[in-house]
Specification:
Length: 339
């Protein structure tokens, strides 16, 4: 049978109320002598006591449980990295995380589970707030705070990377290395926030560094099928650099270029976004904008728990994480760099 508070109380000869206060980290436990608190904790360790979080939550408005909701689970690298950050920070702050996959028509089921667990808060990783409209409405009706990772969230907590600045820096890098005609290549839904921000960064960079140039945004629906023909068009039109929406598209471009006899970076330079594993393994290694997905996951949890525990109700809950460019081998340097 599981070890109970009564078992510990009988072993150390201390009343069960004091034992409960110590093991539940209650403020009143501080009134006990340090030796008494340590005696209780030592007995709990010796007997193998394990706190029943669900039982404890029955007497509280919420438990020390957070919910992480995503559409992608571990099928996409950056989702796994975000989840690692969420789990690491939650564990360090003594919270447990339940993980839920958002599928078609599953919002009602997720709401049921979140409320059943008496979750203290919820972290979402989705492309757009419209994907979680039912869940977010239910959370607000029940007074449960929530936050988003890699997506801004005007009503609650939102932690994102500074995508606009990242792509603008990519344009600056190409300008410094003497490129004349960089374009922006995307394949995602152009209404998604991260696409809008990256495209805006490209346009801002072009206006700042290429005063006589015209920003050119290219959309491909099926990169695997369209890239070879698109590369031929780029070469014919004098495009000498491509800034890609993400590392995946950049890797497809590099692979298709090799098959077509187009040399990266001598014939055309390529910059990605994300710093995924593929950016380091493809040849040539990809110059890319680095996003710290783990840090964004940790920061979202930290801000959420501050709201839950009412430690900081005036903090700015919209956070922009800085990004940086890591230079590898996919950008050509046309002579002396412009400083």
């Amino acid at each position: 049978m599981p070890v109970s508070l009564k078992d510990i109380s009988e072993k150390v000869g201390i009343n069960i109320c004091s034992v409960s206060q110590v093991l539940n980290n209650h403020p009143r436990a501080k009134s006990l002598r340090p030796e008494t608190r340590e005696k209780i904790l030592a007995a709990a360790r010796e007997l193998g006591y394990c706190k029943n979080e669900m039982a404890a939550s029955m007497t509280k408005k919420h438990s020390r449980v957070l919910a992480f909701v995503t559409a992608e689970m571990g099928s996409v690298e950056y989702t796994g990295r975000i989840q690692n950050g969420v789990l690491d920070c939650a564990s360090a702050l003594d919270y447990t995380v339940t993980v839920h996959r958002l599928k078609n028509n599953s919002q009602h089921e997720i709401i049921r589970k979140i409320l059943g667990w008496k979750a203290a808060g919820v972290i979402f990783h989705v492309a757009d707030l419209s994907e979680i409209s039912e869940i977010s409405c239910a959370l607000e009706q029940n007074g449960i705070p929530w936050g988003t990772v890699n997506l801004s969230n005007p009503r609650n907590i939102g932690v994102t990377s500074d995508d606009c600045a990242g792509v603008e820096s990519a344009v600056e890098l190409l300008f410094r290395k003497g490129h004349k005609k960089p374009v922006f290549l995307m394949s995602g839904n152009d209404s998604f926030e991260y696409i809008v921000r990256r495209k805006s960064g490209y346009i801002a960079g072009m206006k700042k560094y290429y005063l006589s140039g015209t920003p050119e945004v290219i959309h491909v629906s099926e990169p695997e099928n369209e890239m070879t023909e698109l590369l031929s068009t780029f070469i014919r039109q004098g495009v000498d650099a491509v800034i890609c929406e993400n590392d995946h598209i950049a890797s497809v471009l590099i692979r298709k270029a090799g098959s077509a006899g187009i040399v990266v970076p001598e014939d055309i330079s390529v910059i990605g976004f994300g710093n995924s594993i593929i950016s380091q393994n493809i040849s040539p290694r990809l110059t890319t904008v680095v996003q710290d997905f783990e840090a964004m996951g940790r920061e979202t949890v930290r801000l959420l728990i501050e709201v839950i525990e009412q430690k900081n109700t005036t903090a700015e809950n919209q956070q922009l994480h800085p990004v940086e460019i890591v230079e590898r081998d996919s950008v050509y340097n046309y002579g002396k760099e412009i400083i």
